[in-house]
Amino acid sequence: MQKIEAIIQPSRLDAVKDALIEIGVEGMTILEARGHGRQKGHTEFYRGREYTVDLLPKVKIELVVHDEAADKVIDTIAATARTGHIGDGKIFKSRIDEAIRIRNDERGETAL
Ligand SMILES: Nc1ncnc2c1ncn2[C@@H]1O[C@H](COP(=O)(O)OP(=O)(O)OP(=O)(O)O)[C@@H](O)[C@H]1O
Ligand SMILES: [Mg+2]
């Protein structure tokens, strides 16, 4: 199993969600996030402490999928979230060891 975490522009969420459902994705988690990439915004000093401003609103999508589905999910998110402008976001992939459906204690890929 693979976990795909995508941080995208909030304005692209509906399109990305629809595209994922279209390719057969079942479960996903959406989180409201704030962040910055390499442009970093800028930092300000206030009473001797440094504050980072310009943490911009983003949406994070998390999905755990079968190994074979990961590439298609990544390609779908990238193609749908891309506007071509800075701040379009990032996608990260990592291995997942276990999944458990709480209702009936199903384990592994059948729990997805
Ligand atoms: N290395 C990282 N680790 C975790 N989150 C990140 C990382 N890089 C970017 N993000 C998240 O992704 C969001 C969008 O990043 P962004 O697309 O601006 O990346 P970038 O590297 O600056 O690329 P670009 O030059 O296209 O803007 C950030 O606001 C942050 O939430
Ligand atoms: Mg950036």
Structural commentary:
There is one protein chain. With 112 residues, the protein is α+β, with helices and mostly antiparallel strands. It has one domain (2-111): Alpha-Beta Plaits, CATH 3.30.70. It is 20% helix and 40% strand. The protein is built from 2 helices and 8 strands. The protein has helices spanning 13-22, 70-81; strands at residues 2-8, 29-35, 42-46, 49-53, 56-65, 89-95, 100-101, 106-107. The chain has a 4-stranded antiparallel beta sheet with strand order 2-5-1-6, covered by helices on one side. It has a two-stranded antiparallel ribbon with strand order 3-4. Strands 7-8 form a two-stranded antiparallel ribbon. β7 (100-101) and β8 form a beta hairpin. The termini are close together. The model has no long low-confidence stretch (mean pLDDT 92). The site of adenosine-5'-triphosphate has 14 residues, from β2, β5 and β6. Magnesium ion binds at residues 37-39, 86-87.
Nearest-angstrom radius of gyration? Answer: 17 Å
Using the 3D structure, state the CATH architecture.
2-Layer Sandwich
Compressed to H and E, one letter per element, the order equals EHEEEEHEEE
Shape: globular
Number of strands: 8
In CATH, what is the class?
Alpha Beta
Bound molecules: adenosine-5'-triphosphate, magnesium ion
- What number is the mean pLDDT? 92
Largest sheet at a glance? 4 strands, antiparallel
As laid out across the biggest beta sheet, the strand order is 2-5-1-6
In DSSP terms (H or I, runs of 4 or more residues), the helix count works out at 2
CATH topology: Alpha-Beta Plaits
Q: Give me the secondary-structure category.
A: alpha+beta
Number of domains: 1
- Strand-residue proportion: 35-45%
Low-confidence stretches: none
Helical percent range? 10-25%
- Measure the end-to-end span: 9 Å
